[in-house]
Amino acid sequence: MPIYEYRCRQCGQKSSFLLLSVKSQFEARCQHCGGTDLVRLISRVALLRSEEQRLESLADPSKLGDLDENDPESLARWMKKFGREMGDELGPDFNEEIDRAMAEAEKGEGDEEFPGEEPEPSFSASESDLAPDDDQSETGPGDDEV
After folding, report:
1. Among 22, 21, 24, 18, which Cα is nearest to 6's?
2. 10, 30, 89, 94: least CB-packed within 10 angstroms?
3. In order along the chain (146 residues), what is the average pLDDT of each group of 10 residues?
4. Could you tell me the residue range of the domain that residue 35 belongs to?
């Protein structure tokens, strides 16, 4: 059962079609905009691997050499590679979400960790916060003031 993939020339989106027979006649239509001006794509060959094999390949230290955790573009490349390894488990829009996050980062948007949540308060204390006030006596607990 072949799966044929096409890219729409109108909207640029990819559409996949599963045919139950090679001899089946069908009219390819874009699944996103309904357009009929499609270009056939050469599909990737699927290599069946277990989840354990996929995760092992991602954890291979030799493949993490070009990953720079301080470089957003490097992280985006690694996340896309992760998405390819995990396949459909991450959803069809995974790469688009990474691209959107990168565009927001370039504009300076999306700095909060979790949108809609309040930022966590800072618990750092300055020297003035730690110094005793002048109007308070230096009596300890249990000391009686006379």
Report:
1. 18
2. 89
3. 86 88 79 92 76 78 75 81 71 79 74 52 54 54 54
4. 3-41
